[in-house]
C-alpha cells in the first residue's frame, strides 16, 4: 500500500466533501437572493411544492456545473501532490489558481442560472400568466417545467465551465513522451 496515494486520496475526499457542502449552501443563499420576485424561503416553509422542486433543480444544476469545474482542479492537485509536477513547491500557487478557478465557476453558476430563469420567464410570459407568479401560487407544473429547463441549461453550461477551468488552470508538466516512427 502506497501511503502517499492513500493520504492524497483522503485529502481529496475531504476537500470534495467540504466543497460540496459549501457549494450547496452558498449557491442556495445566492440564488434565493438573486430572485426578487418572491421570498423562496417563505414559500418553501409554506409547503409550496413548485418552488421546492425548482430550488432542488437549482441545487442539482449548480452542483453539476461546479463538479465540471472541480474535475480539472482535482486532477491537477492529484498530479502535483503525487510529485509529478514539482512536488510540494507548486502547492501554494496551485491552491490559489484552484481557488480562483472555483470562485469564477461559482460566479458563472449564479449568473447563468439566474439569467436563464429570467430570460425563460420573459420568453414564456403571456398576458394571462407569468411563470414567477404561477410558481408563487404553488403551480407544480410550472415548477417542473422550470426545473427541467434549469437542468438542461446546466448540462450545456457545465461543459463550457469545464473548458474554462482547463484553460485557466495551469496543467502540470509531468514529463515528455517520445513517439516512435
Question: What does it look like?
Answer:
With 181 residues, the protein is mainly α. It has one domain. 77% of the residues lie in helices and 0% in strands. The chain has six helices and no strands. It has helices spanning 3-34, 40-45, 49-81, 91-124, 131-136, 140-168. The chain is elongated and about 65 Å long.
List the helices and strands and how they pair.
Blueprint: H1 3-34, H2 40-45, H3 49-81, H4 91-124, H5 131-136, H6 140-168
Helix pairs in contact: 1-3, 1-4, 3-4, 3-6, 4-6
What percentage of the residues does DSSP assign to strands (E)? under 5%
Characterize the biggest β-sheet. none
- In sequence order, what are the helices and strands, one letter per element? HHHHHH
Tell me the total number of β-strands. Answer: 0
Distinctive features:
single chain; 181 residues; mainly alpha; 6 helices; 77% helix; elongated
Short summary:
It contains six helices and no strands.
Amino acid at each position: 500500500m502506497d501511503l502517499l496515494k492513500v493520504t492524497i486520496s483522503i485529502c481529496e475526499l475531504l476537500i470534495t466533501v467540504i466543497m460540496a457542502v459549501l457549494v450547496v449552501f452558498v449557491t442556495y443563499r445566492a440564488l434565493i437572493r438573486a430572485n426578487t420576485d418572491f421570498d423562496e424561503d417563505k414559500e418553501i416553509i409554506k409547503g409550496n411544492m413548485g418552488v421546492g422542486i425548482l430550488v432542488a433543480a437549482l441545487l442539482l444544476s449548480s452542483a453539476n456545473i461546479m463538479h465540471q469545474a472541480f474535475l480539472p482542479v482535482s486532477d491537477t492537485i492529484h498530479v502535483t501532490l503525487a510529485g509529478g509536477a514539482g512536488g510540494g513547491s507548486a502547492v501554494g500557487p496551485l491552491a490559489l489558481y484552484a481557488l480562483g478557478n472555483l470562485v469564477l465557476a461559482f460566479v458563472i453558476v449564479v449568473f447563468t442560472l439566474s439569467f436563464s430563469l429570467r430570460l425563460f420567464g420573459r420568453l414564456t410570459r403571456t398576458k394571462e400568466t407569468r411563470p414567477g407568479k404561477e410558481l408563487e401560487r404553488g403551480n407544480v407544473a410550472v415548477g417542473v417545467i422550470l426545473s427541467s429547463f434549469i437542468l438542461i441549461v446546466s448540462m450545456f453550461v457545465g461543459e463550457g465551465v469545464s473548458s474554462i477551468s482547463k484553460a485557466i488552470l495551469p496543467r502540470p508538466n509531468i514529463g515528455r513522451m517520445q513517439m516512435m516512427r
